[in-house]
Amino acid sequence: MPTSLQKSPACPVELEVIACSLDDALAAYRGGASRLEITVRLDQGGLTPPVEMVREIIQVVPVPVRVMLRDRADFSIKEIAELESLKWKAREFAGLNVEGLVTGHIKDGKLDLTTLEEIIKSAPKMRVTAHHAIEATGDPLAALRALRNFPTADRALVSGGAGSLEQRIQRLSQYHEAIGPERFLIAGGNLSLDMLKLLRESTGIRIFHLGRAVRTPEEAGGRVESEKVRRAAGLLGL
To answer: Is residue 5 in a domain?
Structure first.
């Protein structure tokens, strides 16, 4: 059996669903999602959504929202102007009073901490989820440890990497230790609904992130279905 992870204190089970439109957001909420990640272009791993779309969603969906802040699929920033654009968008999202951002970039094979710091300074009151860029670095454990230096970076979205579910759970155990007890891992990325119950029972992870698994068809262009979200919520005991 995989080694159980220590449970993070005071963290209820949560189901986070990716919303790429108002219709997605409403379907996720009606199905019992605890929170939303708002993004566009799932075919590129999720990119920054329009500010107006975010505003429209938060006006009608009463759950916590974090917004993707990422303009390139490869996690890179090529020019200073791109960073300035991200900082401007961070300020715009902060003005909407959303809970936080979902972001992360890579430079020279490592998590780009300079860019992360600049983004956080632009929206200092917003919480930050570090996303899958962590597992695209050469050393995910070092990237997770580095998040401890950023008080508002309270969550990290990880999949556990490639391999069997047992192998992924073992990596998640290592990730959990690296990020420390004051922050939370979110399990997401290539998760099927059938994996949820086992992950909940065999790990200390309490936040689960679903995209394609709650869509019809189950691909980037699919639409969120309330019934699939409801099934996921049930498997998590929500």
So the answer is: no
Residue 132 lies in a domain: yes
DSSP string, 18-51: EESSHHHHHHHHHHT-SEEEE-B-GGGT-BPPPH
Q: What is the pTM assigned to this prediction?
A: 0.92
SS3 147: helix
Residue 2 belongs to some domain of the structure: no
* Predicted pLDDT of residue 10: 55
Q: Considering only 59-68, 134-143, 157-166, which range has the smallest mean pLDDT?
A: 157-166
Tokens read off for 59: 């006006």
CA distance 129 to 36: 12
Give the DSSP H/E element, type plus range, for residue 144.
helix 140-146
Helices and strands (H and E) in the chain: how many:
8, 12
pLDDT category of residue 121 using cuts at 50, 70 and 90: very high
Residue 46 lies in a domain: yes
Q: How many domains, in total, are found in the chain?
A: 1
Residue 201's pLDDT band (boundaries 50, 70, 90)?
confident
CA 181 to chain centre: 18
Compute φ and ψ for 7, nearest 5 degrees. Answer: -75, 135
Residue numbers of the domain that contains 139: 16-235
Instruction: Tell me the CATH number at 42.
Output: 3.20.20.380
Residues in the chain: 238
pLDDT in tens, 23-43: 999 999 999 999 999 999 999
